[in-house]
Each structure stands twice: as structure tokens, then as C-alpha cells.
Amino acid sequence: MDIQALNQKIAEESAFVSAVRLEMDKVIIGQRYMTDRLLIGLLSNGHILLEGVPGLAKTLAIKTLAQVVDVSFSRIQFTPDLLPADVVGTVIYNPRSESFSVKKGPVFSNFVLADEINRAPAKVQSALLEAMQERQVTVGDQTFSLPDPFLVLATQNPVEQEGTYPLPEAQSDRFLLKVVLDYPQKAEEQEIIRLNMLQEFPTVNVAVHKDQIIQARTVVRGMYMDEKIERYIVDLVHASRDPQGNGIQGLKELISFGASPRASISLALASKAYAFLQGRGYVIPEDVRAIAKDVLRHRIGLTYEAEAEEMTSDDVVDALLNKVLVP
Fold first, then answer.
1. Can you list the positions of beta strands (E) in the chain?
2. Please, which pLDDT band fits residue 273 given cuts at 50, 70 and 90?
3. Which residues contact 59 (CB under 8 A, 6 or more apart)?
4. Residue 191 and residue 165: Cα distance in Å, rounded?
5. 299 pLDDT exceeds 80?
6. CATH homologous superfamily for 224-323?
7. pLDDT band at 164 (very low <50, low <70, confident <90, very high)
8. Considering the domain 3-212, what is its CATH architecture?
9. Closest among 51, 14, 42, 12 to 112, alpha carbons compared
10. Does the pLDDT at position 8 exceed 80?
């Protein structure tokens, strides 16, 4: 493979990335990490679970990205009284024509914000499963394809857990990334104050069209990944399942279950998308390490011993990254 020619191709195909970042920066201050993860989810055709305290511009970010990419956007506020029909739609009866028709729900959008997804019961959460995995929705006896691109961004509030319904492992595994957000820096927060005191809030322009995104996805999948990088990804995932068998001591008692095969696929694809954002046509170990926490943190289960020692899944992923041999 001609790496130089591939790099040239990727540089041309990824030219829109800087334009998207520029438009996002007009409205979103100091959240480049979140912006890049949204782009990785979009380029990898995956969904994102976003965890952060209120007020970190989670809703504003996905809404702004929809404007920049010029696609449809809908927001679903998950509450304990929400019904599956409120998400996917329902069949209604028209007495005038004496016939039934399908009224589509808000899930029929390119970008769907599932706000505070852990507020709704399991029946509503599972209503998103078919949409997220199969990119289709069944209402009554009819099945409808969802628009392309289709991205679900689900948010969770890590602070208030009373009256919530934690996502089961089978559903959280369907999210490509789990992104954990922190508070902005002092200088960034000062800039946020100034931005919100303006008479007129900045408007963003369309920087890329959805056809370019769909084309970029094909390019991302075709990027070069060496066999050594593939083995490194497999070694990381297998080490999460059997740390002792992979020569890592002290983790077996902390992990109740390791990452699934979907984690290997997600880590490979997200690493390619991360390299694409850097304008590079091939994946290096640093790409895998940069995105590993976002891919693995929600796919590794912790034991009571880990919780007693105040260990988090991020600590476990850090240990894996430090111990597994880098090619």
C-alpha cells in the first residue's frame, strides 16, 4: 500500500474537519474533547453516551453539530412516565377514512438527543435498541428505515441517581463511546460568560453536507491498520477479560466481566476515525491509546471489591494500557 498516496487522499477527504471545528467553536467554548468525540461517532457510524453534570453544553453541542452538518435534529426528554410510542411512534385511527396510519416518533431524525436516558424505565430504553442497532423501527406491522446518517447521543447525569434506571450492560454496549465531561477551565468559563452576555448569540454556518459524511465513513473504513495494531487491540480487550492469563496481576479481583467482541470492533473503527481527524491515512498505537478509555470504560464491569477500593473503570483501563505491550 502506498502510504504517501493514502495520506494525500485522507488530507483531502478530512479537509472539512477544521471547518466543522471552527463553526462549533463559535458556540461551544473549551469542549474540543467532546466535539472530536461527536465527530468520531459520526464518522464511525456509532452512537455516543455522554456523561456530565448539567450545564456543560451537551444539548447545545449536538444541536449545533446538526446545524453545521445541515441535518434534522430531535430531542427526547426521558422521564419516568415516557412510553415507547413517544419515542418510535404509534398507529392511529382516522375515523373519517376509517383506516389506520402510522404517526412517526421523534427518533426519525438524523441526530437524536436522548436527554437523561436513565430517567426512563427499561421498556422505553429498549425502544431505542432496534433503532440504534438495526437502523430501522417497527411500528405496528410496518418497518421503516431511519435516515442516514443516524446518530443517537444519550446523556446521563452522574450526580443525581435517585429514581433512575441504570442502563443494562446489553444496551450500554451498543454505544460506540462513553464520553465523560469535566468542568471548563477558569479562562474558558469567563469566555462562556461573555458569549452569553452578547445581544445576539452567534450563528453557525453549514460546513459539511451529509453526503460528504457518508463518503468520509467509507474512507475511514478503508484506512490502513497494520496487523500489529490489530493484535494490540485484541490484546487490550482480552486482557480486560482475563488479566491474570495475560500476565497482569492485581486486576482479576476488580473486574467482574470484561469487554465484548463489539469493543474490539469499536476500538478499531474509532482509532481509524481518530487518525482521520489528525489527517493521517494510517493508525498508530497512540490513536488506540487516545480513544481506548472512551470505548472501554462502559464495557468493563467492576466487582464490589473495586468499588470498596474506590476504583473506577477508567483506573482499570489505565492499568491495561500501562501493562499491555505496545507494538
1. 48-51, 73-77, 89-94, 99-104, 111-115, 136-139, 142-145, 151-156, 177-180, 255-257, 301-302
2. very high
3. 75, 113, 115, 155
4. 36
5. yes
6. Magnesium chelatase subunit I, C-Terminal domain (1.10.8.80)
7. confident
8. 3-Layer(aba) Sandwich (3.40)
9. 42
10. yes
